[in-house]
Amino acid sequence: MIKHSHNSLSHRGRRFVTNGAQSGYRSQKRDGPKEDKLRLVPFRMNVTQAEEVFQKYHGHSFFSAKVSQVDKIEALYIPFWAASTSVKSKILSAQVGWDRLVTRYNRVTRQNETSWETTWRTIQTQHEFSNTYPSTIPDLQIYASYKYRRGFVNQIRSGTSILAAKPLQPQDMESTDSEDKRRGLGNRGLDPFTLKPAIALKFVKTAIEENEVRKAEQWLVQNYKCDQSRIISMDFQYNNLVLAPIYMPVYVFSIRHLDRTFRTFVQAHDAAGLVGGLRFYSWQRVSAVTAICAIAGLAIMGTSRFGMTMTTGFWLGVVAPSLIVAWSVLYYPILDLRVRDMWRQREMAGHEEEASSASWDADWTKAYDRFEEEQRRQDWSENQQYQQGSSQGSRSSSSSYSSAGTADDPQGYYATLGVSKSASVQEIQSAFRGLAMKWHPDRFSTPAEKATGKKKFQEITAAYSVLRDPKKRRAYDVYGRS
Length: 482
What we know:
Low-confidence stretches: 1-34, 359-375, 390-403
Keywords: Membrane, Transmembrane, Transmembrane helix
Structural class: alpha+beta
Shape: flat
Domain J: 412-480
Strand content: 25-35%
Transmembrane segments: 288-308, 314-335
Protein name: J domain-containing protein
Helix content: 40-55%
Region (Disordered): 1-37, 167-188, 377-405
C-alpha cells in the first residue's frame, strides 16, 4: 500500500497544489522482455476507413478547410502506460463557506451598495472515500513517448479499446488488409517507450487526486450545506497500483501547411473514430463572414455615430477587421505549433532532470532498445559475411537484394524496411522494431521457419545498420553502397 499526503487549495473551481510527498514504485528486475508484459490493441480499421474519419474531422463545419493533400500516411503502434489502482482518500481539514448578500454604505459614492460576501469556517474531519480506478479511464492512459505532441495524442485515448488489449505477437506487425498493402502500409511500425514509469505515475496521481478533490468538494458542500469549500488537506493511500505497457493502433496523417508539418492521429480500433490533431479553418470563409457582419453593423448603426466618413468607416470597420481575422486564422496553426513545441521541450527537460538519477523502473520498457543492440552485436559477424558474400548463403541473399533493388535503392535497403527514401531516422527505427519483432528467429518453432526468419532478420538488420547511420546512409544514397 502506498500512502501519499496531499494539500490542495481550491476556490471556485481553481486548484493549486501546495505540496506532495513522493511514493515509491516497486518494479521487477529481470533480463529481457516478457511477452505477457507487452500488449497491444489490434487494428480494426484499414487506411480507407481511417481516411473517411480524417476527412470528416477536417470538414466538420462550414468554416473548416478541407485537407485535400496529405503528404504521408503511417500505420503505427504508439506506446501508452495504462494504470489501474484503488485509492483511499481522507479529508483532514478544509474551509467551508456560506455566501450572503451584504449591504453597506460606500463613503466614496455615498450610496448603499449590495455585494456578495463569503463567511468561511475551518473544519476538521476524518471522512474517507474509497474508489477504484480501472485502466479504462482515459485520463489514466499516459502517452509514453515524446515523439508527438501529447495534447493531440491524448485525444485518441479510449475506455473501450483498452479492453481489447492482447499479448503482442509478431504477426501483428503485418497488415492482412489488401488496401493497406496496396497503399504501402503492409508493415506497421512500433514506437519505443521513452517516458519512464516514475514520470507516468506522476501524471496518474495528478489525475486521480484532482478527481478526489472534486469529490471532496461536493461532499463538503452537501454535508455542511455550504456554498463553497477551499484549502482542502487530504491524505491518499494507493493500493495495487499497476502500470501496464500497451500499444495503441494509429494511422498518422502528415499534412503540410505554410511549410510546416502537422499530424492528425486516427485511432484504428475504436469504431467511434477517435481523432487527435489541429483543425484547420478557411481564412477566406471566415474573413468573408467577418466582412459581411461588419458591413451589416455599419449599415445599422451608421458611421456618423463614430465620427467617421463612409470611406474611413469602410476601411476601419470592414477591411481592417477582415484582414486581421484572415491573418489570425491563417497563421494560428503555426503559433499553436510553436507554443506546443515549447511546452514539450520544457516537459522533456523537466522529466529528464527529475528522472536523471533513476533507472527504468521496469526493464521491459526498453526491451526493444536492448533487443536491437544485443541482436546487432550477436549477428554482426554473420551480417558482415552476408554483405560481403563470403558464403554461399550470403551470396544468395546478396543476389536477392540485387534483384529487388532499383536505381534509387540498389541494395533494396529501403524496400526491405518498407520505408521511403525520404524517411526520417525515427521512421526507420520504428519500421525496424516492427519487422524485428515479426522475423526474429526465436519467435519460430520449426527449423525451416527459424532458417527463414534468420535470413529475413539478417536482411532487416543489414539494411537498418546502414540506414540508421547518417554517414553510411548518405554514401548509400550517392554511391549505392555504404
